[in-house]
Structures are given as structure tokens and as C-alpha cells.
Amino acid sequence: MSSRHVAGATVVDGSITVPGDKSISHRALILGALIRGRSYVGNLSPAADVAATAAVLRACGGAVRPFDDGRVSLDGAGPGRSLRSPDGTLDCANSGTTMRLMAGVLSGHDLKATLDGDASLRRRPMERVAAPLRAMGAGVSTQDGCAPVRIAGTAQLRGVEHRLEVASAQVKSAILLAGLSADGPTVVHEPLPTRDHTERLLRACGADLAADGASITLRPGPLDPFGLAVPGDISSAAFFLALAAARPGWRVRCHGVGLNAGRTGILDVLIAMGAEVEVEDGPMAAEVEPQGNLTVTGAPLHGVTVDPSLVPRCVDELPAIAVVATQAEGRTEIRGAAELRHKESDRIGALVTGLRDLGATVDELPDGLVIDGPVRLRPARLDAAGDHRLAMAWTVAAALVAPDDGESVIEGADSVAVSYPGFFDDLARLLSGPR
Ligand code: S3P
């Protein structure tokens, strides 16, 4: 496990191009490997999680190949026809998206497979995806509700109507991907709308998919191959945007960032806190996903309430938001975020511990956090708990310590590779001055 020393920043003023979006990359690989014909994906995320999806697809006979210009080519034979039983256990590593989405895909093929992962992934709830897939006719078993997930799939699933208990784009996507092999319509109702990357890409491929608020209906039918340049990952950009927001006059510009409305809650929160946020809409990526340039300029911030309805739109950004909240005048309340306890770590518990070590005033709620600011953060030894987003949030906090007060140490900093292998290099470039 690597540790990293991080000093307080004197100024933040620069531009950055973050790597391709992780969520969109998973879906592009999976759909490209299923759809009959050849698809191409450019600007694929370099995340270890996405590499896990590529490896799982390949282990099942999926044709995922490097092409030119850094693009990846994908060849499929159609849903239900593209994958076969792998030789061994499928290793999803740290990636919940790989395990849940692939559970849906594999359920819709005539094969047997076992999905497993690292210690963190083995603690995460999998019945939420197993139960609807069983209702569709697949054999799916979990171990005490968790991985390993054993699948006996069939290319003749039943279309079902499923009401999700928790708002989860991963579970919704697993059901829709299985629904491609169903004999009739698949309907998913969400308690709150979540990111719709799967729906957008399916529709771009010609799927008969209707979305009405938080209800989605998919009717299986022919799909066309696609070409997609993946936009930049707003969840990676979020750490730099949060850092800039926290000090008046600091500024970060991010180019070509995905602006899917299911992902832009971080911008709403920063604006509500008082930061200056400029959004310059760019051309849609292959008419599938909105993208554009973002500039965030820091200002004196005040505390906000992050309402439960906003949580799915910024679920992965809550660690960064919690760090910024320590610099805002007054109280910030995050509620309705119990799902944070089931991410790569118990992010609520870990945030409370780390923020207190940094000198912040924090109260723990079963489903969130209450943070009173502003405080002068002090250097600390912070544990990423094997969680990439905590490693990056702690780095932002360390950069917000006054430079003369000393360095912080991030334990387990190498976990950033799960979503953003170049994070520390990009941060160093940003801190080296205006460009
Ligand atoms: C993701 C959905 C979210 C998010 C995760 C990626 C996706 O999880 O936290 O990092 O790509 O669908 P849930 O849908 O389970 O909340």
C-alpha cells in the first residue's frame, strides 16, 4: 500500500482535460461486445475498473481489441449470442459496475459463470441485482447477499416489470441489459432518476426504449453498431472543481467534460455554496451524451443542504463536497445518502473519521453528514480505506491546509488508479501555475 505526502497549495489556477468517463466506458464496451457488427470507442477511461470490464468480456469470448488512434474496436453477434462460459472465475477486482452490469449481461446468455472481486467488492450488496435477474428466469445465486455471484444464464429471459428499492443506475442497467435477451418488454421504475448512460447508448443504437420520468420501458429488437468518443469524466473533474471552489480567486477550467444531467449535481451544490460556475456547452458526443467546458472560480462559500433528491446526481462527488463544506461558512447537511455506506468503503464512517482528524466539526448521521465550517484544516495522516474517491478527497483536503502548517499523508493513495490513474500527475500540473 503506497502513501503519499501532500502539501498545502498556494494557488490553483489552470486548465485540465480529465480522462474519459468511467460509467460511459463500461457501457460502451459491454454494448459494443454484444451488438452484432463492429463498434468503435475512443477516449476510453483508463480506470482499472474499466479494464476489469474489458477483461471479463474477453474471458467470455467477447471481442474487445485495441484499434488505431487509441480507439478500441468491439465485435458482437447480438445479445444472447455474443458470450460463452468462461474457463475460470471472472475477476471484477474493485468494480461494482463490472459485477452488476455483467451479471445482467451474462444472465441473458446460455452460459455458466461466477463473478468475484476483491475484499471491498465482496462486501457490497448483490441481491439487489440477483433478485430481478432471477425473476427474469436466470439462475443467480449470491453468498449471504454478496459476491461471489454464480450465474446460469439463458438467452430466453422473461420481460419483467421491476420497481427498484434504491436508486441505482447499476441495478437499472443490469436489468435493461438482461432485457435485451427477453421475450417481451422490460420495465424499470426508479425511486429517483439516476444517470441514464445505458438508455442513451441503447437509444442511439436504435433500441425501442421509452423513458417517462423515472420509469423506463425497453422492447427488445435489432440494434446497430456505434462509434462513440467518450466525454471526460465529471466525477474525476469534481476533485479539481471542488479544490478551486474552496478559495476565493482559485480557478480550474476543465475541457470536454460529460454533462449528463444525472451527473451534474456537483455543479448545483458548488453554485448553491456561492462558487462561480461557468458551463460552456459543446457539441454532443456522437449525439449520445452532452459535454462541454467547465470553469469553477472560488468565492467565499456558505453551507448548504444537499437534499435526498439531489443525492443520485452527485453520489460519487459527496466525499469532495464534504471536504469543501469544511471551508464554507455555516452548516452543510447531507441527507438521504445511506447508499454511501455501501460503496467501495463505508464512505460516511470514513469521512467522519478523516474529517475529524483534519480538525473539522462533523456529525455522523445514519444516512449522511452534518459539517460546520469554516475551519482551518490541520495536516493529518488520512486513510483512503482502499477507496479511490476517498484518496482523492483527502488529497483535496490536504491541498487546502495552509502551506506553512505542514504536509498530510494519504495512506493507500495508489487506489486512485481504480478510476483515475493520472490523478496525482494532473494535480501537480494544475498546482504548477497558470497555463
Ligand atoms: C455507477 C452508478 C453509481 C455510482 C458508481 C457508478 C454506474 O452506483 O456510485 O460509481 O456507472 O452506473 P449506483 O448506481 O449503485 O448508485
Structure in words:
Catalyzes the transfer of the enolpyruvyl moiety of phosphoenolpyruvate (PEP) to the 5-hydroxyl of shikimate-3-phosphate (S3P) to produce enolpyruvyl shikimate-3-phosphate and inorganic phosphate. Monomer. Belongs to the EPSP synthase family. Its main location: cytoplasm. Its EC number is 2.5.1.19. There is one protein chain. With 435 residues, the chain is of the alpha/beta class. Helix 11 links the parallel strand 22 and strand 23. The model has no long low-confidence stretch (mean pLDDT 97). The radius of gyration is 21 Å and the shape is globular. It is built from 12 helices and 23 strands. The longest helix is centred in the first third of the chain and has 13 residues. The strands form 6 sheets. It has a 4-stranded mixed β-sheet with strand order 2-15-17-16, covered by helices on one side. The protein is 29% helix and 25% strand. The chain folds into 2 domains: 219 residues, Enolpyruvate transferase domain (UDP-n-acetylglucosamine1-carboxyvinyl-transferase, Chain, Alpha-beta prism); 208 residues, Alpha-beta prism (UDP-n-acetylglucosamine1-carboxyvinyl-transferase, Chain), CATH 3.65.10. The site of shikimate-3-phosphate has 11 residues, from helix 5. Shikimate-3-phosphate (S3P) binds next to helix 5.
